[in-house]
Specification:
Oligomer: single chain
Low-confidence stretches: none
Order of helices and strands: EEHHHHHHHH
Largest sheet: 2 strands, antiparallel
Strand content: 5-15%
Number of strands: 2
Strand order of the largest sheet: 1-2
Distance between the termini: 53 Å
Radius of gyration: 17 Å
Length: 160
């Protein structure tokens, strides 16, 4: 690599700036893709919920497009619906210690990925050059995505 050229950069459509690969905005989109991979695995392992995981993946894709293109966010009503019912949250480590169900482990991991995605979203919303691209209105579905995954993990852990 030519030392004069430096590390690769990219033009960020969200900020209109040239960003380096270690930009926090890049981290958000990597995290979104890690979550999509986890949901794709769950779609295969947890066939009873395959369609729900696919819908979650489409939601993530549509949310990403909405952020980049400054368009309306996708509906997250289906995530709210998946989160309705008994409010059940438990200690993550206790849940994992008590299960032999691999899907519970994968769901817990995916829920943690959503929490990390939420972290990056909030962080970006506080940075002036990214603030416009990360408004609160587009954030609102993410907590429900996390809850839906946690609730499914808990239900499956109770079955094992």
């Amino acid at each position: 690599m030519d030392k004069e050229a430096g590390f690769p950069t990219f033009e960020c459509v969200l900020s209109g700036t040239i960003e380096e690969l270690d930009s926090v905005v890049e981290r958000f989109f990597w995290q979104k893709n890690h979550l999509a991979v986890a949901l794709a695995r769950l779609r295969i392992k947890d066939t009873a919920w395959s369609e729900k995981y696919e819908k979650m993946m489409r939601y993530l894709s549509d949310l990403s497009n909405s952020l980049v293109n400054f368009t309306e966010p996708p509906s997250h009503k289906f995530l709210v619906d998946l989160s309705l019912g008994e409010e059940i949250e438990d200690d993550t480590v206790v849940r994992l210690l008590g299960t032999r169900e691999e899907r519970t482990i994968d769901l817990t991991d995916a829920a943690i990925m959503v929490s990390e995605l939420m972290h990056w979203y909030v962080r970006l919303s506080k940075i002036e050059k990214f603030r416009k691209g990360f408004p609160y209105e587009k954030f609102q579905g993410l907590p429900f995505l996390r809850l839906a995954l946690v609730y499914r993990a808990i239900r499956l852990s109770r079955m094992s």
